[in-house]
Amino acid sequence: MTSANEAATDLLAPGGKREAPALVVDHLTKRFGPRVAFSDVSFDVAYGEVFGFLGPNGAGKTTTVRTLGTLIAPTSGRASVAGIPLTPRNGQQIRARISIMPESPGLYLRLTVAENLRCFAGLYELADAGGRIERALKAVNLTERANDPCGSLSKGLRQRVALARAILNEPAVLFLDEPTSGLDPVAAREVHELITSLRARGVTIFLTTHRLEEAERLCDRVAILNTTLRLIGRPDELREQLFTRNLEVRTHAPLPDPGRVFAGLKDVESWQQTPSGSYLLAVTDPDAAAPGVARALVGSDADVLSIAESRHSLEDVYLELIDEDVEAKRR
Amino acid sequence: MKFSWTRVRAIFHKELRDYRRNRFIVYTMGVLPLIFITIPIIEIFAIPASAQLSTRAGLPLLYLLIIPAIVPSTLAAYSVVGEREQGTLEPVLATPISREEFLVGKALAALVPTLGIAYLLFGIFFAVVALFANSVVASAVFDRSHLLVLLLFTPLLAGWSIWVGIAISARSSDVRAAQQLGVFASVPPLAVVVLMSLKVIDPTLALALGLAAVLLVFDGIGWRAVAAMFDRERLMTGARR
Fold first, then answer.
1. If one looks up domain A2-239 in CATH, what number appears?
2. To bridge B165 with a disulfide, which of A90, B49, B77, B90 should be the other Cys (CB 3.0-4.6 Å)?
3. For residue A246, what is the enclosing H or E element?
4. Which residues contact B231 (CB under 8 A, 6 or more apart)?
């Protein structure tokens, strides 16, 4: 999708690095009567950052997006979006500088792709609407389908039209709510590439997703929300916060006395044998520990197949946190 | 940000394109008014020249005024709840459009075709009467009060129907229920017109202008009321703040 990336680059004016964060959220809370949608949420997002917002259904992700998009008023707390304080008076000004792509594409199905985009070009009062539409369509590889009614498009293509609509106004902050939901792997990859190219142009992307591997691949930082903000940081930081680091040792045959091999090593805190027969060593620094482990294994005449860091995925982090919440609720 | 006619135009053009391709709306805008013009034409031709002409000729004209009352109400009632059902409301409300711009765009998109259709059908009706009706009946139809009522009250009745329809639409969760309520709520102002046409209220120029002014005020109040009740949060979540 090189040409598409170039088109995205053409479409978005150089953002450059700015000093203030693109998003500042300070103890933000939203309640609907007695029901808490999200509570005491604080974070900030830098310009050009891709920020992942994860959480189970009903965690408050979409309500957070709608609140920051000025569609919903917060109950308490403060925020600024694209450098503009989030107040009722600033709603229009904020909405002019951001874009929200909801989970459902929300297209006018009886209108063509180009007509849908033309309507939104008018709503954003864009100069050179025709050129913008052309570039947005090129960015999502839909130029050929410009005159097709949206009702005749597949779900994946509709999602791409919604994405074209979202980048039409060259937003400073782009909120994407499950942008690859329902897309086939190729289409999802194209969306990922587009997100990457948008980031390169300084566009801040606030990405809510259920696809944890997507968040891990695309996001500079992620936040896990379950009504309250449970964790925030880079994916590798979160892993380190929640899990000890491990070396996984695979041998051709089980070690006759693994305790003797691993117990004396200074970088190894503990060890256990996994059901698959490999050994999992809790270490503080896998790089520092690995040579000592290798020497000890060779010294014990073990046939070593591999020594590698066992990495927890973002999914492990997510499930650990959500399981904790479920357990806490049970108690 | 100041009121933007560019954004109003964007909504207006989008609505007209959408209407043209919506069979239900094409039927409502095209076929339904034909019923309300066919009946008065038949009635006019059934009036004997000896009858109480002014009253008898006024009655069929009432059917014509149903057009501006009913036709826009179905469009207006669809305007908000229809967008919500399609999932298109959130992307639109997430743009810089203000509620006033959104509502004016929607209202104009219902008003302009309604006026076009209504005046076109009035023209056809009067042409048929002028060409084919008994000359005594025709001159009664072309009574100044009838023409005044038709010309003056058509946009005002349409305006009322539109604001009531949009108000109902903004509070509804079902398109059909909104449209039925919209039609029902647009009928009351017709009562004044009925009384004038039946000469229960003497349709003098001053009275017609007075009543038109009252309806105009009601239209203004309707517009302000709809703007006040148009709440993004409620539309997004269904919850009150």
1. 3.40.50.300
2. B77
3. strand A245-251
4. B241
Residue extents of the structural domains in chain B = 5-237
Query: In chain A, pLDDT over 70 holds for what percent of residues?
Result: 91
ipTM score: 0.86
DSSP for chain B? ----HHHHHHHHHHHHHHHHT-HHHHHHHHHHHHHHHHHHHHHHHH--TTS-HHHHHHHHHHHHHHHHHHHHHHHHHHHTHHHHHHT-HHHHHTSS--HHHHHHHHHHHHHHHHHHHHHHHHHHHHHHHHHHS-HHHHHHHT-HHHHHHHHHHHHHHHHHHHHHHHHHHHH-S-HHHHHHHHHHHTSTTHHHHHHHHTTSS---HHHHHHHHHHHHHHHHHHHHHHHHH--HHHHHHS---
A-chain residues within 8 Å CB-CB of B87? 102, 104-106
Q: Within an 8 Å CB–CB cutoff, is residue A92 touching chain B?
A: yes
User: Using CB atoms, which residue from B1, B88, B96 is nearest to A106?
Assistant: B88
Q: Judge: A165–B91 Cβ closer than 8 Å, yes or no.
A: yes
What CATH number matches the domain at A244-311, 3.30.430.20, 3.30.70.100, 3.40.50.40, 2.40.160.60? 3.30.70.100
> For residue A18, what pLDDT is reported?
53
When pLDDT is cut at 50, 70 and 90, the band that residue B197 belongs to is low
CA distance A10 to A197: 10
- B232 chain-A contacts, CB cut-off 8 A: 70-72
- What are the chain B neighbours of A58 within 8 Å (beta carbons)? none
- Name the maximum alpha-carbon separation found in chain B: 64
In chain A, domain spans: 2-239, 244-311
* B82 → chain A, closest CA residue: A108
Among A72, A115, A123, beta carbon nearest to B92: A123
Q: How far apart are CA B42 and CA A305, in angstroms?
A: 97
